[in-house]
Amino acid sequence: MKIKSVCVFCGARDSVDKEYIDLAAECGKMMSSKGIDLVYGGGRTGMMGAVSKAVTDTGGKVVGIYPKLLDDLEPLNTNLDNTIFVKSMFERKELMIEKSDAFLILPGGFGTLDEIFEVVTLKILKQHDKPIIICNYNNFWQNLIDCCEEIINKKFARTHARDTYEIADTLEDVFVKLGY
């Protein structure tokens, strides 16, 4: 199946180093150049804002799924093709999962961790069979990857759990793994 839409999970804080904002912007440009629509959390700050702006600025399509409870914490990006307002973070994740053909995890914080574990767990439980790519840019996620391996090695998860996601070190590798 050709990947037409990718949900990008990443940080929403403006205080991160510029290299992460640049990574998100480059990701957005690459998505747009390949005709891949962006599905994301709807915010305009941090990496989330950078990836959506890059997709929009290069002619791509963006769907933002935004819980109103974030109004004071994570300002809404009003320059989207489609904004869906939801009541909760749970509903946000549910719709992002439903509207995406694949998931790309860029560096992020606790919200990103929540999203990673949600899509991985649902894939383990056979609730979806969509690709999950963790972009381990500059080894950002290496400790998490090692922790997941330890969970599997200590038999707290089945060995096939490691088959639910792929690791990519660069954006170029991400898009190869997505079939581009």
UniProtKB/TrEMBL annotation:
Any single GO BP term: cytokinin biosynthetic process
Catalyses which reaction(s): AMP + H2O = D-ribose 5-phosphate + adenine
Pfam families named in the record: Lysine_decarbox
Xref: Gene3D superfamilies: 3.40.50.450
Keywords tagged on the record: Cytokinin biosynthesis, Hydrolase
E.C. designation(s): 3.2.2.n1
GO molecular function per UniProt: AMP nucleosidase activity
EC class: hydrolase
GO cellular component, as recorded: cytosol
Family, similarity comment: Belongs to the LOG family.
Protein's name in the database: Cytokinin riboside 5'-monophosphate phosphoribohydrolase
